[in-house]
Write a structure and sequence with these properties.
The chain is of the alpha/beta class. The protein has eleven helices and nine strands. A seven-stranded mixed beta sheet has the order 4-3-2-5-6-9-7, with helices on both faces. Helix 2 (33-42) crosses helix 3 (60-67), helix 8 (218-230) crosses helix 11 (267-277) and helix 10 packs across helix 11. The chain is elongated, with a radius of gyration of 21 Å. The chain starts with 9 loop residues before the first helix and ends with a helix. The relative contact order is 0.11. The structure holds S-adenosylmethionine. S-adenosylmethionine is lined by residues 25-30, 54-57, 60-61, 76-79, 82, 103-105, 122, 124, 127.
Length: 281
Amino acid sequence: MSAIDSLPPLREVIDTHQLLARKSLGQNFLLDLNLTSKIARQAGDLSKCDVLEIGPGPGGLTRGLLAEGARRVLAVEKDSRCMPALAEIAEAYPGRLELINGDALDVDPLAHLTPPVRIAANLPYNVGTELLVRWLTPKDWPPFWQSLTLMFQREVAERIVAQPGTKAYGRLALLAQWRADARIVLSLPPEAFSPPPKVHSAVVHITALEQPRFPADAATLSRVIAAGFNQRRKMLRASLKSVAPGIEDHLQAAGIAPTERAEQVSLEEFCALARSIKPLD
Ligand code: SAM
């Protein structure tokens, strides 16, 4: 018996279903159910929420989310070998766990979930950043999710919460911090996983704001940031030359020195620049 539910310990589940971890699927499993419950608790009050989990694997975090009271969990797993183990969890929590055997990049979560929705996942490293960028750049804001509680490689987590003037600062920090609060809530050493990855990991908790922190047109802001950081060593007047005619005037209007480099420019300044390039109605 494990501490949080009446299902077998995860090591036993992995042995029973012969879930030898596959590198190609980014499989580094969490086997300590106390730890997965702790991660689930970082996601906030789950009792009134549906939760989307990507990559449940043998189900450690899934069990944590259910034991912590999630109203419903939709778990999307690409590896069909995991489905029998996950079906046993669904049986233990009748009506609260829906399983999809498929690629998270192809699933429309809103076809299965009722808002409010929180997302929690120990993400596969190969698709983690792509999913995060998708969740941070929906067509409309506020997005369908209230919060994201996500495990990343420590280096990616640091890029999400980075501040100007640091090496980690870039597109991911600006995207995350423009319309959300982002903080690192847990750090995990490689030994927390089986098999242990080469790098340290961290859980980031991201909460959607109702409104962007500073007004700006999303597409213009995104272009300016991409151009600025594509050539992060260049001065902005050079790296942004192709974004809009008369870029020096726009930089001046935003209060940014044309000789500045992207990594010195704050979110507020990037938003002012985007507004100058495309005045808001
Ligand atoms: N959540 C489990 C845990 O914490 O032990 C497993 C985490 S493991 C880092 C990532 C999981 O994502 C694996 O089970 C893997 O099969 C799954 N996965 C990889 N790519 C996926 C994709 N495109 N869509 C859905 N699941 C995927």
